[in-house]
Design brief:
single chain; 506 residues; 19% strand
């Protein structure tokens, strides 16, 4: 019997066992767990011919041409504070140069000077990106970002996202509510205070003082799993240019209120589902979501909202029907829930009606990392749901919505360690640091659109996302000859077109 036949026989045995359990009432529902996508693992990698390389570059430039000119037009609306008589590089040139730094996964300003700013590389890049009229020094871009309002860059990026959400491409992939995941992460940390906006930790304790730049990020998760960066709220002590020593430092709760206000202006009230971790299981956060008409799934820890937990434990004894047993792939899940739990918070004793679900999950770890024998693993999850829970919707809300929170952790991994150098300090000037951050968001968004397009699916599957980006930019800066691609990006677009971005699942 071949390996394939053995695997099929084992799968048939599992199916028969599951069917018996369903008929006996031990398991009510069985769901397949989708496999994780994997990069090709053949010998030699992806050895394209010269014609295939030309076609790959052509499609990359073609996709870029449908969106980059309109992005530069949006960015050009930002006020340029420089003297017109002293300008050597146009504003559009510096903006496209900043985007290219992150599109091509440059690790630093010095790396950009070394690998992009050479005479030969510039001549080749200008053939494909005519908006790059001259090749500036990375310090020139830094000086511009110090002087301009960085919020203008984020505002332009918000307009890009808005046009994408209103496009037919997005509506085909995501016909229901927009799923937004929000979480905070550290950008960089130093043992000295380089700017008054930096948040302090362990202040006053010798040798343990740390100062950091901290951000609250949001990502858009499509139904097919594609994750795209949304807006950012950077925590800073100086709000509106004034530092109030009597107030506490900025925190994630305050930043959440500012970020959700921006998201509401961008996405509107209703038609949004927000996924949050346990830090945001508070009355003000839930009230904000309800005020905006947003659906939500919020993780709840054992120590949080003790009155809600107490009511849940009491009602669970008299609501035995609120239980569902599910077999999700190789994992057994038991869901228990209670609806309309009363929670009172604040000086005004505001009342909220909460719905709580608890999932106890168990599975057999066949290959433990310790190298030992197979062992039984158990885990417990709890979430607050804006919708009342029923046997029909509890699995979907927990597995297809709440557990998508890990997508933002994967986004952090990509931006920090897979090409975008999230934690690198491109500038110690706070204003410029924010500008670089917003340019990074644009570059990341463009790479997500392009690498998930069906036009280049074959190459991305073969090379992987990072390998594809690396190879394309080596070919672009190395002067690959492609007369068809050279002419594609020269046509200016007044409006961003997403018609060519037939995305594939992430």
């Amino acid at each position: 019997m071949t390996c394939k036949e053995k695997r099929k026989a084992k799968q048939d045995e599992r199916d028969i066992k599951t069917a018996q359990e369903i008929l006996s009432g031990q398991v009510k529902i069985h769901y397949e767990r989708p496999p994780k996508p994997a990069q090709a693992n053949r010998k030699g990698g992806c050895n394209n011919t010269e014609e295939e390389n030309e076609y790959m570059v052509e499609q990359f430039v073609r996709l870029l041409s449908f969106i980059l000119p309109a992005i530069l037009e949006l960015l050009s609306a930002i006020e340029d504070p420089r003297s017109p008589k002293k300008i050597k590089h146009s504003f559009a040139t510096l903006m496209v140069y900043g985007i290219v730094i992150f599109l091509s996964h440059m690790s630093s300003r010095r790396a950009a000077n070394r690998e992009l700013a050479g005479d030969i590389s510039f001549e080749h890049l200008r053939e494909y990106i005519p908006q790059l009229e001259t090749m500036p020094h990375a310090d020139t871009l830094n000086r511009l970002l110090i002087a301009i309002d960085p919020e203008g860059i984020e505002k332009s990026y918000g307009e890009i996202i808005l046009q994408f959400i209103r496009s037919g491409t997005f509506l085909k992939l995501n016909p229901s509510r927009a799923l937004v995941v929000i979480d905070g992460t550290q950008k960089l940390s130093r043992n000295y205070c380089w700017d008054t906006n930096a948040l302090g930790r362990n202040e006053g304790i010798p040798d343990k003082e740390r100062y950091r730049a901290y951000t609250l990020e949001s990502v858009l998760v499509l139904e097919d799993g594609t994750t795209m960066p949304l807006l950012t709220e950077i925590l800073e002590n100086e709000i509106y240019g004034k530092l109030d020593s009597k107030q506490k430092q900025d925190c994630e709760q305050k930043a959440f209120m500012r970020l959700t206000e921006k998201l509401m202006k961008l996405l509107g009230k209703g038609c949004v589902t927000v996924v949050l971790d346990g830090l945001y299981a508070t009355g003000p956060v839930i009230s904000r979501c309800e005020a905006y008409g947003w659906d939500y799934m919020i993780a709840l820890k054992n120590g949080n909202l003790k009155t809600v937990w107490r009511d849940y434990e009491g009602l669970r004894k008299i609501e035995p029907e609120n239980i569902l047993e599910v077999q999700w792939g190789d994992r057994s899940q038991i869901y228990q829930w209670s609806n309309s739990l009363e929670y009172i918070y604040g000086n005004n004793h505001k009342k909220l009606s909460l719905n709580l679900v608890v999932c106890n999950e168990s599975w057999l770890e066949m290959h433990p990392r310790s190298g030992g024998k197979p062992e039984l693993k158990k885990s417990k999850y709890a979430w607050l749901s804006s919708e009342k829970l029923t046997p029909e919707n509890v699995f979907k809300r927990c597995t297809k919505i709440a557990r998508y929170r890990w997508r933002i952790e994967n986004n952090f991994l990509i931006e920090k360690h897979q090409g975008y150098n999230y934690s690198h300090c491109y500038s110690y000037d706070w204003n410029a640091m924010k500008g670089y951050h917003y340019l990074m968001k644009i570059g990341h968004f463009l790479n997500v659109l392009i690498t998930h397009s069906s036009l280049i699916k074959e190459y991305v599957t073969c090379l992987g996302i990072r390998g594809f980006i690396k190879k394309v930019w080596i070919l672009l800066t190395g002067g690959i000859h492609n007369s068809r691609a050279n002419s594609l990006i020269k046509v200016p677009k007044a409006k961003i077109s997403f018609c060519m971005f037939k995305l594939i699942p992430g």
